């Protein structure tokens, strides 16, 4: 009951809840109400049970184990395993917060550089996705000849699996035999070391991810634009609002529900975007452009496998994302209230 | 390009609705054509390279020596066909399990208010944030103990850790968009809540289920990190792992790589072409009411 009331933002979106609440407010007696609520809840719990069970096993257990590992010094040598019939006992020790201290104090040396690049990577990718996606969506939302053809062409990158795109761009970026440098040579510009120089490398991967991610944003925002009633624009135009004012005061607020979700999801996905960085540059040895996720992955599976260090990195990444999304939701909520 | 959303609408202001000056129209098309070219170029380039034989990639600007040799080799002498099948099996398995398990939960979260409702919604979102790094080592150990490493079943189980919360989240948004009057009608006719869900809502939500399934398939199809570590024998590789063997520190079989890229993109592209209308509708329903 209280959840339904505090959650009025959601409740408004669902016509049925309003009615449910009324029904519950006029109960046919205490016993009947208790029985009905038990029946309701029993049903609800039974229906979510499969998901809860699966998540408990597949996410809950590994998460617990990951947290546990992050407090130990486990690595490949001491984790314990079975070789044939011979069992090697685990010999790793509990070392408390040492891993976290190492990471957060900067003693381990790669956290803060990785973090700042990850933030830049996420921010620039999401910003480019959103602005380009919105721009194209607004163009496609007009009456344009050949609109459906444009739309199919613009959606195409989305149909390309990320690992294929990563390879394709890696080939195009090839310094000696890549098509980009060949085009530059035609234009009389010298070759660029796309994947060598740390800074250019970063620009290159952002470009790949932008190419890959814009269609999703475009499609999502196009759907959002189409759901804004035409009358709103017409009314604003009648009132003499300029195009910019209409964009600010009609289009953007109308898009907010869609924007809020896709920006949040986009941020999470980009922050954890593994294949692009890993396949385009990750293995080439350059660690400059690695984001937190690929770095943690490398810790766990290259050289002496540092399971504990990798797990601690994972927990830190997760905490960062959690803090971000809590603040983000707060911010959205406050804007909602302010209006 | 980022100036577009700000700058563009202003062109509309001075004219009657729906009309544009010739210059504005030309600019509009120019932008769209340019964007389409950027979107299309890498794909077209890969297709071109794939047709130019084993070493055609080294001369990207030449337009000669077209042959299907790369395709013949990819299909005949590499594990491509097996990998393709493996990827399809894993992605389809993840899709089926994910959608089947999460549909009823999505409905319950959409329609019923119960203790734990909020935290469940919240956890659907949070679980999508799980970085590979938190889960991969524990899951690796867990699957190792169960003897499921290097198997498709193990990979499907792994992918479900992401697919299930995602599906539940998407489907919840979808069910929200179906009027609750329908539920009421079902209830009046004496259906149980599950009966309502199964007989009335699921058939109505079929497009939403399809879209969610499609996204889940796509995510599993393109996954790299888990597959790279969990699969160790070549006959179990998925495409994402198998294609890494074409291009590595000591090998640069770009001909093979581009040919397989094209073979992967053709079915994906066709699917998108037919599904795109529904994808738009599905996303907004799922996205706007998260």
UniProtKB/TrEMBL annotation, chain A:
Enumerate the subcellular locations listed in this protein's record, separating them with semicolons.
Answer: Cell membrane
Q: Which PROSITE patterns match?
A: ABC_TM1
Residues of the signal peptide: none
Residue ranges of the TM segments: 42-63, 119-140, 152-172, 203-225, 262-281, 307-328
What UniProt keywords are attached to this protein's entry?
Cell membrane, Membrane, Transmembrane, Transmembrane helix, Transport
* Residue ranges annotated for the ABC transmembrane type-1 domain, each copy included: 115-328
Record PANTHER family:
ARABINOOLIGOSACCHARIDES TRANSPORT SYSTEM PERMEASE PROTEIN ARAP (PTHR43227:SF7), BLL4140 PROTEIN (PTHR43227)
What is the recorded name of this protein?
Answer: Carbohydrate ABC transporter permease
Q: Which organism is it from?
A: Streptomyces pathocidini
UniProtKB/TrEMBL annotation, chain B:
List the transmembrane segments: 26-51, 83-108, 120-140, 152-171, 252-274
Organism this protein belongs to: Streptomyces pathocidini
Q: Which coarse location class applies to the principal site listed for this UniProt protein?
A: membrane
Give the ABC transmembrane type-1 domain ranges.
Answer: 84-275
Q: Which compartments is it annotated to reside in?
A: Cell membrane
InterPro entries according to UniProt: BP-dep_ABC_trans_perm, MetI-like, MetI-like_sf
Similarity section: Belongs to the binding-protein-dependent transport system permease family. MalFG subfamily.
Q: Which CDD domains match?
A: TM_PBP2
Gene3D superfamilies linked: MetI-like
Topology of this chain in the membrane: Multi-pass membrane protein
Protein name (record): Sugar ABC transporter permease
